[in-house]
Amino acid sequence: CPHCSSLCSKKGLELLFLSKYDQALGDVIKFPKRVPVLINYSVKKSVYEKKPDQNDLEILKRIDNLDIPESVPKNELPNMQMANVGRMKTTNVSFLHNFFLPRQAHALGGVWEKINTISDNSIRHALLWTVEQSIPGMSILNRYQPIMHGRPGGSQVNRQMAGVFYVPSQISECSPWYNLKGKISRLIKVFSKTHFPDRAICIFTGDCSETQLADNSIDYIFTDPPFGENIYYSDLNLLTESWHGVKTNSIREAIVDRVKNKALPDYQALIESCFSEYYRVLKPGRWITIEFSNTKASVWNSIQTAIANVGFIVSSVAALDKKQGTFQAVNTPTAVKQDLVISAYKPNGGFEKRFQQEAKTEEGVWDFVRTHLKYLPVTKSQGTFLHMIQERDPRILFDQMVAYFVRKGYPIPISSQEFQDGLLHRFIERDGMYFLPEQVAEYDRQKMLFGELKQASLFVSDEASAIQWLRQLLKDKPQTFAEINPLFMQQLGGWNKNEAQLDLRELLMQNFLCYDGKGPVPEQIHGYLSSNWKELRNLSKGDTILIAKAKDRWYVPDPKKAGDLEKLRERALLREFEEYKQTNKKLKIFRLEAVRAGFKKAWQERDYTTIIKIADKIANSVLEEDPKLLMWYDQALTRSNEERK
Description:
three-stranded mixed sheet, alpha+beta, about 650 residues, single chain
């Protein structure tokens, strides 16, 4: 406290309000007490600061008593989420003119009125556009920031918090010339040197789901769509739009907004209508790039579902490194923690026509994989490292194929095991990734340049990611249970609360093989031991010394044996799924992989009712955060409704 030197926190103090007559409303309103404490002014080229004196306070009092200009909007603020929380809630901003201190209102209102007297349309619009950019910066949203870039001083122009209505404790009240002088000179410099040839640039403002563009007419799309409840765009627009006397129609605004009763399913439907329009106008075989930024997995899955439902196929997901301005390869479990760039393509017309004839055959599967591999990057590198391309992993390829068939309404013609075998015979494998013959030479060349392949770090949160983590651990280094267990236990901190946690032995037995010391040492273990122990080199696979060292080690099976394991695991999963079908209770903790396997089997049998009934037993939050369950459920609802018609 500057008066008594007591140490006080702002949180522990009571906010002081004053009753004040509002000229525009003709009524007495309660406002937080605001006192001018510092004046920044200039004389010629010198800048000074002073504390307000009596003369300054008298001038402010005279301005307070003036009628607010007619051009200042005075509409009541509609009900909005931003007004119900945080700093807006305590400031009693109920009408649009409450965003402006009296002097700000007179300054902006005066400038606005003068501009509107200009008869030349182009000049008037250019000036209105210039001034409208300063509206938030000349309101009570403008924060006082005496320290910028780590040092005292700096501009106070447009210091409002981006993406939200936030009224700070300390307001920087800028004059129009302070705010606009630098902006006007910069705009003059830009537009005096810029020439746009006729029809070179087109700016469209409107509903993204109705662009009025021709089918298959656009070469490339970059989009940064709304993400759930991140930003209330139409509400934010209100402050500037009100000066123009217009208002955004927010009925089809693709956001989550509890005040407007827009939940996640509404958001997904609206965003999907926009992506459907993107798909319609994009040329076949061309690309769309989507930037994503949200920390909720449910929103991430809604975006992925919307992209896939309309027909796009995701080629890659990369993290946007804002510090370096580069992209990094990422895994889906950690994806929502970062800003992402999603690259997807619209399948070319030739494949679409072929697929209609091949969809019910195995050839449709391999035509899809062949076409998809053409669109995937051959290498990904960062610095001196070559990165694993997750999209070329056989399990990811299988998931992509399944998703494509399901969304097209066709049964999946082959099993996971048959798919793995087919990949081996039709494509070339390198480091657990599959390539077309014409791509593999480029990959080999790049690997020679970069050297070792860097594996992406995995975040274990459920059974599927645990299996993937174990596969990565055991692929190059077969280990005993005693060696695996302590490493595995360290990974369980982020396990999903609704996911049944399996014993490590069960995970190993259902997905990997253990050498029991009988027969020759498996190639996977032999290769590891002979590479890491000199005394074990050049020994036959039946040597007793090698067998003793190899005994009880778990390893990744070859594709043929992996297929047998997969069949046994699938039977176990379907047995659990049958138990879920019989229970009448909600599923609070369950085996997610069992539900996925059950949904897949039900889809093959066109038993959409089972999918819908089981989905109803699962909490919405779990359903919304799992892209595979969400896909089966959405498609089951669609097909079920079609059959009723």
